[in-house]
Each structure stands twice: as C-alpha cells, then as structure tokens.
Design goal:
Distance between the termini of chain B: 36 Å
CATH architecture of the largest domain in chain B: 3-Layer(aba) Sandwich
Number of domains of chain B: 2
CATH class of the largest domain in chain B: Alpha Beta
Strand order of the largest sheet of chain B: 2-1-3-4-5
Strand content of chain A: 5-15%
CATH superfamily of the largest domain in chain B: Cobalamin-binding domain
Shape of chain A: globular
Order of helices and strands of chain B: HHHHEHEHEHEHEH
Number of helices of chain B: 9
Structural class of chain A: alpha/beta
Number of domains of chain A: 1
CATH topology of chain A: TIM Barrel
Helix content of chain A: 40-55%
Number of helices of chain A: 14
Strand order of the largest sheet of chain A: 1-10-9-8-7-6-5-2
Strand content of chain B: 5-15%
Shape of chain B: elongated
Largest sheet of chain B: 5 strands, parallel
Oligomer: heterodimer
Number of strands of chain A: 10
Largest interface: A-B, 37 and 31 residues
Helix content of chain B: 40-55%
Order of helices and strands of chain A: HEHHEHEEHEHHHEHEHEHEHHEH
C-alpha cells in the first residue's frame, strides 16, 4: 500500500493496514536544522524559491521522517499577499509579520485580494506543481493559515479579538473577505496538484474565544473554507491549538476529514469525545526535541493505542529536534504492524 | 448622590461587565463626591478585575473577555490615578516581561502583564519579538526583581535558555527570578533550562510571582 493510498483510506474513514504518519507543513513545521544540512537547502531562502521549497519538502520523505510532502513552511504567505509586512526569519526562526496592514476590522477594504499568480503564493503553487510532476505515491499537502489566524495577522490581534464583539457585523464582513481569499488560494493549491489541504488555526482557540465566539467565528469560517474546496481532493485536515474541553461540541461541527490537536489534549480524551471522527496527533514536540528515540517510540505507541488514526507531531517541530528522534515516529508506526 | 459603596460596586461591576463608559462615569462621580482615589482603584477597579480573573479560572470568561475587562479597568485607572498621593515606584516589586525573539504572539503575555499589574507589581513590558539581550539589559537598568518570558512556538523557546545564561554571565541570576510560559512550555522545560517557575495561565502566573518573591 502506498502512503497515498493509505492516507486516502484513512481520511475516508476506512480501515488501512496501519495508521498513517505525516506532518503537514505550514504551522506544523516538519523541517529541522539537521534535515537542512542533509540536503543543503536552507531557510529563509526555501520560503521564497519554489525549487528549493520542493527539495526541502522532498527531503522530509526521503529521510524517512514522514510519509508526505507539504508546503509552505510558515503561516505568513496569505497575510503577506494581502499587505502585511513579513520578516522572512532565519535558518532557525520562522517568518513572522512585523507590520500590520490595517488597524481595525472596519478597514478591511484596504486589503489587497490574494493574487495567486504572484509573490509567495505563486512560489507555493509552483512548489506543489514540481512535487506533483516529480513524485507519485506520496501525498502532497497544501497548507492554509486558518481564517482567524490570518485575520489576526493583518491587524493587532488584541484589537481584532475585541472587535469580534464591539464591531460584530464588521468583523463578520472582514472574516468573509479573509475566507474568500483563503478559498482562492486553497482552490489554486488543489488545482496545482495538492492531494489534501491542511488548515491550521492556532489563533482561533476555544481558550481565547470561548465556546460562543469559537462557534460564531472559528467554526463558521473554517467550514465555509472547507466547503468551498474542490470535491476531487483527497480530504482536509484542521489543526486547532489549545484545550478542547470547553469546545468539544463545537469542534465536532468542523467539517474536515480529520481533526488534529496539540499535546495538551490527551488523545484518549479526544477519542472519547469525538468517537466517529478521524483524529490526527499528537506526539509531544518537547519529547521530539529533548527526548530520545526510545521515548518518542513509546509516545508514538501510546498515540496509536489511544485512538489516533494519523500519527503526527503535536505541533510544529523545533528546529533543533534531532533527526533520529523525528524518524522514531515513523519507525514506531511501521514496527507496530510487524508486531501485530 | 450615591454612597461610596454604591460607586465602588459600579466601578467593580463595570469592569466585570466590560462597560468602559459605565466605569468612566462612575469614576468621575466617585471623584466628584470626594472619595479617595486609592480605594476606588483597589476596592472598585481591581476588585472587578479580580472577579473577572475568578470567572476566567472557572472557565466562565475567556481570554477575549478578560481583555475587554482590562480595557474597562484601564479607563477607570486613567481617571483615578492622577488623584493618587505620590508614591515612588521604587517601593514596588519590578518585573520585566516580553515575548522572546522570533515570536510575535503576545496575547498571553499581555494577559499576564495585566494580571501582574492588577496584583500590584510594577511591570516593564518589552513587547514581542524581543531581542534576548534586551531582557537582560532592562533587568539590569531597572533593577528588576523578576523576568517573565513567553513564546507560543517551539522554534523560539530556546531563546529562554539563552536569556537565563546571559543573566548568569552578567552575575544577575541570583537576584532575578525567571518565570516562563506559553503554548509549548511546560514545568519540565522550566526545570530543564533552570527557570524558577512555569505557569500555565495568567492567574497562575500571579500566584507564582507572589510565591517566588515572597509576597503575601
């Protein structure tokens, strides 16, 4: 069974020969310093050059870290294309927004709609095309920054969160605009050859928003985005950060093929609350950076045992995570079947 | 004319209910009635903020709620503060707070700063994406008693350890307590890098600061 066939079955809710083992990219960073040294492709250059982006992405699979390709490696592409100023970071720091585009939700008309034919949006699409053309059996994941996270990258997040209440209607108009842009970028990624789309929305957590606003803003616009992507794609993954306990009911309304959580959510608890969902996660990135392969192996086995269908890191990898730790996840997942 | 108790309650309720205008109105009436600004702050505004953090702890309120409560509190503070008797800030315990270099997620940090200020600490906020040496320089210049660092990203958490090492090199480590927090941070990580403490949220951060600095 190829990694692609396996992941497809799992996302469709079928039983595969074993869990899949992926790390989507985007917020869920899967690149480490050691990996960059192996292929001599480095950030921040790889954020801006499609060929290098594709090469680094291939290395993730070739070095037996994860069974997928994924681009981009940051969550600033969308905001940058709409007008935020981004510092491209370094070989260890991720790109981040250094200057916002607007001061209030009511100014959203000043934003530039995303043009997928230029800038880093084009770089990402070109990288997907390269991966599509040059590879076959490995799923290509296109990544999108979630609606709330994108919206709060274009303006000061504190003001944004407050205006969800104080300027409720305008906040919705802003979110509709943002979601339209993400749909355009997401559809272009599928068209370029992405097999599935992963959406990470770390700023749209239940802990920050509370159940009411989580549902009104995060769930509503994530679903609008998911519903607008092409039917022919293999599936979608949504990653949400933070505790789920206040919002399990609302999270279950997210219409993605799979749901992914960070390590603060015990897989066992998630499985209990979300019985019929495909779940992804959540090997501690702390253990991946500071633990050893044995520890990672144990955590991997626990994830499988506790009901995770797609084994993955709980969050983006720390750049200094040793490759042998990262590789221990896939090794553990593979060993699982031979022992069974 | 409302009684002092009624006005204090309006200040406190205004903060809990996130009503800036109510707080402003109550604060002005309170001053006009000639009541002491200090009580208005402590028994009105700060009381409201404490009730808001209680609700936060009970998961009735969430981060966005607390941010709006703190806005209302600061509106009241701006009105009452000029009427406080002069107190030198030297008497206050001083903390330096910021999000470490490479990261711009500062919601959690802002919340911690607000809660610590409410609890009476003098906080110097360096903002976000703060160069690591800046924490140390500021701690030295301001004669700070503690440093708080946060990050939401695994890629940037290593900077916290660097700050601790820089504090050691400057010979400041013994007099400056270090508290850390943020999504990927844990007690284990705090132990590993030799921080004095970790807290999971803003309310816990206040308790931790009080414990580390022996404040009642």
């Amino acid at each position: 069974m190829t990694p692609k066939e396996r992941l497809k079955m799992i996302l469709e809710g079928q039983q595969a020969d074993r869990p899949a083992c992926i790390c989507p990219g985007g917020m869920m960073n899967m690149v480490t310093s050691e990996l960059m040294d192996r292929v001599k492709v480095y950030m921040p250059e790889a954020h801006k050059d499609a060929r290098q982006m594709a090469r680094l992405s291939k290395a993730v699979y070739d070095e037996r870290c994860f069974e997928n390709y994924g681009v981009p490696f940051c969550m600033t592409v969308e905001a940058e294309e709409m007008g935020a100023r981004v510092d491209m970071g370094s070989d260890v720091y991720e790109p981040h927004v250094v200057e916002y585009a607007i001061n209030s939700v009511s100014e959203y008309q000043k934003l530039r709609p995303v043009d997928v034919n230029q800038g880093r949006a084009k770089v990402v699409l070109d990288a997907i095309r390269i991966l599509r053309e040059e590879t076959e059996d490995v799923p290509v994941v296109g990544n999108l920054t979630g609606p709330i996270s994108t919206a709060s990258s274009l303006m000061e997040p504190v003001i944004f969160y407050k205006e969800l209440r104080k300027k409720n209607q305008e906040a919705h108009a802003y979110m509709e605009f943002i979601t339209e842009q993400l749909i355009a970028f997401g559809r272009a990624q599928v068209e370029a050859g992405a097999d599935l789309i992963a959406v990470s929305d770390p700023s749209g957590t239940g802990e920050i928003l509370g159940p009411k606003y989580f549902k009104e803003f995060a769930v509503t616009y994530i679903n609008r985005l998911l519903d607008a992507l092409q039917e022919e794609k293999m599936g979608t993954i949504v990653h949400i950060c933070g505790q789920m306990s206040p919002v399990y009911e609302e999270v279950n309304e997210v219409r993605s093929s799979a749901l992914s959580f960070d390590s603060i959510v015990p897989m066992k608890e998630a499985r209990e609350h979300l019985k019929n969902r495909v779940l992804m996660g959540n090997v501690s990135t702390y253990a991946l950076e500071f633990g050893d392969p044995r520890k990672v192996r144990t955590l991997t086995e626990n994830c499988v045992k506790n009901g995770s269908d797609i084994i993955s890191p709980a969050c983006g990898l720390g750049m200094k995570s040793p490759l042998r730790n990262v590789q221990a996840i896939l090794a553990g997942v593979e060993a699982g079947i031979s022992e069974a | 004319m409302s009684s002092k108790e009624e006005l204090l309650k309006r200040l406190s309720d205004g903060v809990v209910d996130m009503e800036e205008d109510d707080v402003a109105e109550a604060a002005k009436e309170y001053l006009e009635a000639g009541y002491p600004a200090f009580d208005g702050i402590m028994e009105g505004l700060v009381d409201g903020m404490n009730r808001a953090s209680q609700l936060y702890e009970e998961e009735e309120y969430f981060v966005t709620d607390v941010l709006l409560c703190s806005d209302a509190m600061y509106v009241g503070l701006d009105i009452l503060r000029p009427y406080l008797p002069e107190v030198s800030s030297d008497d206050k315990i001083t903390g330096v707070i910021g999000v470490v270099e490479g990261d711009t997620h500062d919601i959690g940090k802002n919340l911690v700063r607000i809660m610590l200020e409410t609890a009476g600490f003098h906080m110097i906020d360096l903002g976000r994406d703060v160069p690591l040496a800046k924490f140390v320089e500021t701690a030295k210049e301001e004669n700070a008693d503690f440093v708080c660092m946060s990050t939401l990203m695994t890629t940037t958490m290593g900077g916290m350890e660097t700050v601790i090492r820089l504090l050691e090199e400057e010979g400041l480590r013994d007099k400056v307590k270090v508290m850390i927090g943020g999504g990927p941070i844990s007690q284990k990580y705090a132990d590993k890098i030799g921080a004095d403490g970790y807290s999971q949220n803003a309310v816990e951060a206040v308790k931790l600061a009080k414990r580390l600095l022996n404040v009642a």
